[in-house]
């Protein structure tokens, strides 16, 4: 690593002048690991809560070390906790929609309300200043709906991208009764898709999900921006806006293409340490340049399928929330792991307001964000500056 070479050179020259016996440091500097980043972020988040570290935000007294929710990695939940989570997701898949009747014929359930809101918001919440903030708000709304509308007692779990080089056989996708359902059934050779300039080959699945808690789930909305092989004959939506009713099976094409080579602990660490500002951080998360796939995109296309590979409709894939939970955690780690950077990183806000237009109006921290019918009661239209910290504004959670 170039940084280490510089440090070593400086240390070597210190030795020349002072002599090894007068070594000025107590311990040798050891390389930072991704685990250190998580540990330091959590320790600093607790310091902010007990008042020994300032992040520049004012917070109500309701959120403390004793009351703060702890979001966990899916595989770290007990089997009972995992089952309780998928029970709640299935519950929300069965509750009635709260959208105006007839306006969105494909919105068959309360779960679909979340999908419709994402479809409507897509151009204004991706590659924009509010990308991280709006999605933090959105995931929290989903977690809140599971708890208030389906009696879920836990918190939103996440998928640590760096944890399973073999994602296909991970506790998330292995298809057992405690998983998030299996891969799509194998359909043999099928076309890949381009992720930027890189070709993602067709994976080991591609068919309908027929194992585990979401076996034979029917989805209705979209597709709007499909990426699966056209030869599979996935039906187009009867409406050009994707809101028509288009019943079809949930497909996945989970593969280890990204997790084995581009989403390893060092890859996550490098992305975090290379970004001094939130602009650079959110840009490199979404577009890492021509040579390698970005982490946000790699996560979506590790799951792929229909609607998992459709940027508008992807929340209709039940593991969307685990992937975006990790995206939120990744941001939380970046903002919190260095004590001296925590305050400035917490309130950084950079970027435009429309994904296709780099010259769109600049986003402001006071811009209101919208969740329509999926906003928790009394919490629609909060400004982005309410989402700077996971323990301020409407939130009170950390990641373990
Ligand atoms: C899912 O569909 C497949 C194929 O039609 C069927 O064999 C299987 O029993 C179904 N599983 C469940 C849980 O309904
Ligand atoms: Cu999104």
Task: Explain the overall architecture.
The structure is a single chain. The protein is mainly alpha-helical. It has a single domain, classed as Di-copper center containing domain from catechol oxidase (di-copper center containing domain from catechol oxidase, Orthogonal Bundle). Helix content is about 35%, strand content about 5%. It has helices at about 1-20, 35-50, 80-95, 110-125, 130-150, 265-275, 280-285, 295-305, 320-335, 340-345; strands at about 70, 185, 195, 200, 205-210, 220, 250, 395-400. It has a two-stranded parallel sheet with strand order 1-8. A two-stranded antiparallel ribbon has the order 2-5. A hairpin with a 2-residue loop joins strand 3 (about 195) and strand 4. Helix 5 packs across helix 9. The two termini are about 30 Å apart. About 45% of the residues are buried. The model is unreliable at about 1-20 (pLDDT under 50). Bound molecules: 2-acetamido-2-deoxy-beta-D-glucopyranose and copper (II) ion. 2-acetamido-2-deoxy-beta-D-glucopyranose (NAG) binds near residues 210, 215 and 216. Copper (II) ion (CU) binds near residues 118, 126 and 135. InterPro entries: Di-copper_centre_dom_sf, Tyrosinase/Hemocyanin, Tyrosinase_Cu-bd. GO terms for molecular function: metal ion binding; oxidoreductase activity. This is Tyrosinase copper-binding domain-containing protein.
């Amino acid at each position: 690593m170039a940084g280490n070479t510089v440090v070593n050179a400086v240390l070597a020259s210190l030795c020349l002048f002072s002599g090894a016996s007068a070594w000025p440091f107590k311990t040798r500097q050891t390389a930072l690991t991704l685990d250190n980043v998580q540990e330091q972020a959590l320790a600093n988040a607790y310091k902010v809560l007990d008042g020994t570290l300032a992040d520049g935000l004012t917070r109500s007294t309701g959120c403390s070390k004793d009351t703060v929710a702890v979001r966990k990695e899916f595989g770290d939940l007990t089997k009972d906790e995992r089952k309780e989570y998928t029970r709640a997701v299935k519950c929300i898949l069965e509750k009635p929609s709260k959208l105006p009747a007839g306006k969105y014929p494909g919105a068959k359930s309360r779960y679909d309300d979340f999908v419709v809101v994402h479809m409507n918001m897509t151009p204004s919440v991706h590659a924009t200043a509010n990308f991280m903030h709006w999605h933090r708000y959105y995931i929290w709304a989903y977690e809140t709906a599971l708890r208030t509308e389906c009696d879920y007692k836990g918190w939103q779990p996440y998928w640590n991208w760096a944890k399973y080089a073999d994602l296909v056989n991970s506790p998330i996708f292995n298809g057992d009764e405690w998983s998030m359902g299996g891969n799509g059934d194998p359909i043999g050779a099928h076309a890949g898709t381009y992720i930027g300039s890189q070709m993602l080959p067709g994976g080991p699945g591609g068919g309908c999900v027929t194992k585990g808690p979401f076996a034979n789930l029917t989805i209705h909305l979209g597709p709007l921006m499909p990426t699966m092989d056209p030869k599979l004959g996935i039906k187009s939506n009867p409406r050009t806006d994707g809101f028509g009713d288009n019943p079809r099976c949930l497909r996945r094409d989970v593969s280890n293409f990204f997790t084995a080579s581009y989403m390893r602990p060092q890859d996550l660490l490098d992305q975090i340490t290379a970004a001094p500002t939130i602009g650079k951080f959110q840009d490199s998360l979404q577009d890492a340049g021509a040579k390698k796939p970005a982490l946000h995109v790699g996560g979506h296309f590790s799951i792929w399928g229909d609607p998992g590979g459709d940027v508008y409709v992807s929340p209709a894939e039940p593991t969307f929330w685990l992937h975006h939970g990790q995206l939120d955690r990744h941001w939380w780690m970046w903002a919190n792991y260095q004590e001296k950077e925590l305050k400035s990183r917490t309130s950084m806000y950079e970027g435009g307001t429309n994904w296709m237009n780099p010259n769109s109006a600049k986003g402001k921290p006071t811009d209101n964000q919208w969740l329509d019918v999926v906003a928790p009661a009394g919490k629609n239209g909060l400004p982005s500056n309410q989402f700077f910290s996971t323990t301020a504004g409407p939130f009170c959670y950390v990641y373990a």
